[in-house]
Amino acid sequence: MGLALARRLPGAYPVTREPSPSHTASKPGVDLLAPDLTATAPGALRVWAALVGGFTLLWLASLPLRNASIVDMWWGPAFVLAWAVYASAHGQPTPRTIALGLLVVAWALRLAWHIGRRNVGHGEDPRYVVWRTQYGASWWWFSWVKVFFLQATVAWVVSWPIGATMRAAPPFPTLWDVASLAVALTGLTIEATADAQLRRFRASAPAGAVCDVGLWRYSRHPNYFGEAVVWWGIGLVACGVPGAWPTLVSPVLMTWLLVRVSGVAMLEPALLARKPAYADYVRRTPAFVPGRLRRREP
């Protein structure tokens, strides 16, 4: 990540810490690689409680609606809530806190708008319909565990870099901050562009057609790739805070979920079954990271 270039930074810039009796000012020679497993505290438990409470309210709303997929639209705004709770736990926001907050708000609002536009008025997502049928009469309470509580807990873990950037850091902005935020903004641009290209394609393409234009020519899931890049950028911002590098578990978890659990791995079988041309698309197009294309079969 670039931090391995120097074990210690001689004459390092002064470190600004939030006032707390348990934290003292750092001395010159800040060790960025010494892990601090409390890098998201204080506020971490408050964030978890707020997320569980918020997702539980969504669960209660989903019961009369018989639609668990309302949770999807609130995935992004959950991180705005996490940012706000972290910020309140640390007192007056710093410039880094504000910059990261603006990025999180932009990402969250775009994602909520995109998912809401896609889902509202179209009934429950087929994934949840399958689970509703599978669990029968038990689904009403099991949906809280499997969907709402689980997403709240995952969102909490993913939010750790946000909390870490508020706890302690060199003056903002550093070159590391600029580069890391540029990575996150690049990911957001990729994600938004891919979603817009897919939406335009679906509006005019015949049923069963495979979108292989624009970014979709180089990756079967460029929107998921962009999402992962956003969180790697946020994780890199956190790496500029002494001891906060363990919070890179956040982008690692997000990338794993997008590739192996809720993203690529879940969509691909359905797309192969529904679209005859998708098999050739799979053969010639990388699944996640954009790359070189292979020739079409004659």
Would you kindly provide a written description of the structure presented here, covering whatever features stand out?
By secondary structure, the chain is mainly α. The chain has two domains: 40-167, no CATH class; 169-298, no CATH class. Helices cover 61% and strands 1% of the residues. It contains twelve helices and two strands. It has a two-stranded antiparallel ribbon with strand order 1-2. α1 (44-65) runs antiparallel to α3 (75-89) and α9 (222-239) packs antiparallel against α10 (249-261). The model is unreliable at 1-30 (pLDDT under 50).
In short:
This protein has 298 residues and is mainly α. It contains twelve helices and two strands, in the order βαααααααβααααα.
The residue ranges in which pLDDT falls below 50 over 5 or more consecutive positions are 1-30
Overall number of domains? 2
Query: What's the overall average pLDDT, rounded?
Result: 87
Instruction: Indicate the proportion of strand residues.
Output: under 5%
List the secondary-structure elements in sequence, H or E: EHHHHHHHEHHHHH
Q: For the largest beta sheet, what order do the strands appear in spatially? A: 1-2
N-to-C CA distance: 43 Å
Number of helices: 12
| Radius of gyration based on Cα positions | 21 Å
Largest sheet: 2 strands, antiparallel
> What general form does the structure show?
globular
- E-strand count: 2
Helix vs. strand class: mainly alpha
Helix content: 55-70%
